[in-house]
């Protein structure tokens, strides 16, 4: 195994609603994340119309990055991060989502974060919308309404202008294909109606394409990517029915990439919409917008793979969206039941590059596990082994298969609340945060064993992975 490319972007990734806390500080408004209650592996998170007194909402406190960002970024720098993927909370800038003038206090917070990143020469990779649509946009019907496109463009334009020459890498939407699996987190849509979901998805495609064009006009050096929630699947058997079932499942996910990377809806999706009697709300000039607003690169999350076949009906079901009707008996599982499949990462990268021939970036990959803090230390050898196995397969994809991978931002370099359940006990980080599922704790930060290991990975540009 050779070294990774010399300019490879090593780092970590977080989301504002999962780390910041301070949910109403300095003029911030409520987002869709702020009305999601605590859940668990057995209990689904509840969505409330407003903040209820007797419920606990994990995003309200999170890990209080809002007041700890200098300390946390210093720890990222100590690990040697080249890049930090972060998101900017829409409701810190436009509290209700539809104001005409941004909240200066919110912008100043992100000014300060960028100052810290620049101090340590860490490149920011910014997700414009990461699972936190302003709750104030519910009065329009959220992303089902075309007016929300204009609200999003206004938000993005403020960021692109304010941070011109400070931020080069952008993602328009986090895991946009979650519109089909978790529409509330993806778009503030709480509906099982496929017409509603596909209308909202269409509006996000238009919004993303417009932002790509605007970003390139403001600064030709801007690079704007899409972000795919990494659903990849193996056919249950060689039975043609299982192969076709798997093809249909992948179509339900990949059409999101097709639109953003190719600039048009694939025929298989248009025929499906026709069968469902769903008419897309296409306006004059929209098809040109989609074509001209193709992304510059494709980023993805990767945690697990699925098995699908003739029994797989529709989109993923289940508590964490992983029940396809089949189990993979060849793979171990995490504490939360997600398969652990390092080779699947290499397969996924090949699958995407074969399809689009665009540069790729892994912007989420990690292991949610139960960690034990003892004597101010966490011996998380299981996390090190998980990441080592995945990074070895990433190296093969680059060196053997020739896949152009820009970088790798491990998900949750610091413990954060889990998007799927809202739990703190589902820990991902290299840094342990002393806070429990109900927000109790000192908020003190502790370096896990994996902290020192990842620092060596970055220092050696991956060479340490060759050591047994």
TrEMBL record:
Keywords: Glycosidase, Hydrolase. One of its GO terms (molecular function) is hydrolase activity. It holds the Pfam family Glyco_hydro_1. It comes from Catenibacterium faecis. This is Glycoside hydrolase family 1 protein. It comes from the Bacteria. Belongs to the glycosyl hydrolase 1 family. Gene3D superfamilies: Glycosidases (3.20.20.80). SUPFAM superfamilies: (Trans)glycosidases. PANTHER family: 6-PHOSPHO-BETA-GLUCOSIDASE ASCB-RELATED, GLYCOSYL HYDROLASE.
């Amino acid at each position: 195994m050779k070294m990774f490319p010399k300019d490879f972007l090593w780092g970590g990734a977080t989301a504002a609603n999962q780390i910041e806390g301070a949910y109403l500080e300095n003029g911030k408004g409520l987002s869709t994340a702020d009305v999601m209650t605590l859940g668990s592996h057995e209990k689904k998170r509840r969505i409330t119309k407003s903040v209820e007194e007797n419920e606990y909402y994990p995003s309200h406190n999170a890990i209080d990055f809002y007041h700890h960002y200098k300390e946390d970024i210093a720890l990222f720098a100590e690990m040697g991060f080249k890049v930090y993927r972060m998101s900017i909370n829409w409701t810190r800038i436009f509290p209700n989502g539809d104001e005409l003038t941004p909240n200066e206090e919110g912008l100043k917070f992100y000014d300060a974060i960028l100052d810290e990143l620049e101090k340590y020469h860490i490149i920011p990779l910014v997700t414009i919308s990461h699972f936190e649509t302003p709750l104030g946009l519910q009065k329009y019907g959220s992303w089902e309404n075309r007016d929300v496109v204009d609200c999003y463009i206004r938000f993005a334009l403020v960021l692109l202008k304010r941070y011109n020459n400070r931020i080069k890498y952008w993602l328009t939407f986090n895991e946009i294909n979650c519109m089909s699996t978790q529409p509330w987190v993806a778009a503030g849509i709480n509906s099982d109606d496929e017409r509603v979901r596909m209308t909202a998805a269409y509006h996000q495609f238009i919004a993303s394409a417009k932002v790509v064009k605007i970003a390139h006009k403001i600064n030709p050096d801007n690079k704007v990517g899409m972000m795919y929630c990494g659903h990849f699947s193996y056919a249950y058997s060689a039975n043609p029915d299982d192969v076709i079932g798997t093809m249909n499942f992948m179509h339900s996910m990949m059409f999101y990439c097709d639109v953003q990377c190719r600039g048009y809806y694939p025929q298989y999706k248009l025929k499906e919409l026709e069968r469902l009697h769903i008419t897309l709300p296409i306006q004059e000039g929209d098809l040109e917008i989609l074509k001209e607003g193709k992304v510059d690169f494709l980023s993805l999350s990767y945690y697990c793979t699925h098995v699908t076949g003739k029994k797989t009906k529709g989109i993923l079901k289940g508590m964490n969206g992983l029940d396809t009707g089949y189990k993979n008996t060849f793979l171990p599982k995490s504490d939360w039941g997600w398969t652990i499949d390092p080779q699947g990462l290499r397969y996924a990268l090949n699958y995407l590059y074969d399809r689009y021939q665009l540069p790729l970036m892994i912007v989420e990959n990690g292991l949610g596990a139960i960690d034990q803090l003892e004597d101010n230390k966490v011996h998380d050898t299981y996390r090190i082994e998980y990441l080592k196995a995945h990074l070895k397969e990433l190296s093969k994809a680059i060196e053997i298969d020739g896949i152009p991978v820009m970088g790798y931002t491990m998900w949750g370099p610091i413990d954060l609340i889990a998007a799927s359940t809202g739990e703190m006990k589902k820990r991902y980080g290299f840094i342990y945060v002393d806070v429990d599922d109900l927000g109790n704790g000192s908020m003190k930060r502790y370096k896990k064993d994996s902290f020192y290991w990842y620092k060596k990975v970055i220092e050696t540009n991956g060479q340490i992975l060759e050591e047994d």
